[in-house]
């Protein structure tokens, strides 16, 4: 458990400001809300998940997943591996997660997405 926490902490520090400033414009240039949402979802939740399952989830949320996913693939922001699973370079994934962490608001309870177990537990405990 301690090793997992250490690894997760180190992963969060791998994205320095210079790299972030170079990668964030790729997100900023996405054409619409669907592309931006799918990029952030992939960064926070869907890396390593079956592409079809992710697409069904996005379609259920009202996103045009086929076109948006194609746009992200064309821009090399996401890949689908030989097993049909979504993949994202770790620096792009960290960029997406940092974008979410910098959303307006003072803490995790104000973010559009939560993926860290402890933050999820804290938010749920505060709201009950």
TrEMBL record:
<dbReference type="InterPro" id="IPR044974">
    <property type="entry name" value="Disease_R_plants"/>
</dbReference>
<dbReference type="Pfam" id="PF23282">
    <property type="entry name" value="WHD_ROQ1"/>
</dbReference>
<dbReference type="GO" id="GO:0006952">
    <property type="term" value="P:defense response"/>
</dbReference>
<feature type="domain" description="Disease resistance protein Roq1-like winged-helix">
    <location>
        <begin position="33"/>
        <end position="102"/>
    </location>
</feature>
<dbReference type="InterPro" id="IPR058192">
    <property type="entry name" value="WHD_ROQ1-like"/>
</dbReference>
<protein>
    <recommendedName>
        <fullName>Disease resistance protein Roq1-like winged-helix domain-containing protein</fullName>
    </recommendedName>
</protein>
<dbReference type="InterPro" id="IPR036390">
    <property type="entry name" value="WH_DNA-bd_sf"/>
</dbReference>
């Amino acid at each position: 458990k301690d090793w997992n926490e250490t690894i997760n902490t180190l992963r969060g520090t791998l994205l320095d400001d210079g790299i972030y400033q170079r990668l964030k414009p790729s997100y900023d240039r996405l054409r619409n809300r669907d592309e931006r949402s799918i990029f952030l979802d992939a960064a926070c939740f869907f890396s390593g998940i079956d592409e079809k399952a992710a697409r069904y989830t996005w379609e259920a949320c009202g996103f045009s997943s086929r076109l948006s996913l194609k746009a992200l693939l064309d821009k090399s922001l996401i890949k689908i591996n030989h097993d049909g699973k979504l993949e994202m370079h770790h620096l792009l994934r960290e960029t997406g997660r940092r974008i979410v962490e910098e959303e307006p608001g003072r803490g995790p309870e104000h973010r559009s997405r939560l993926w860290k177990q402890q933050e999820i537990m804290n938010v749920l405990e505060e709201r009950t």
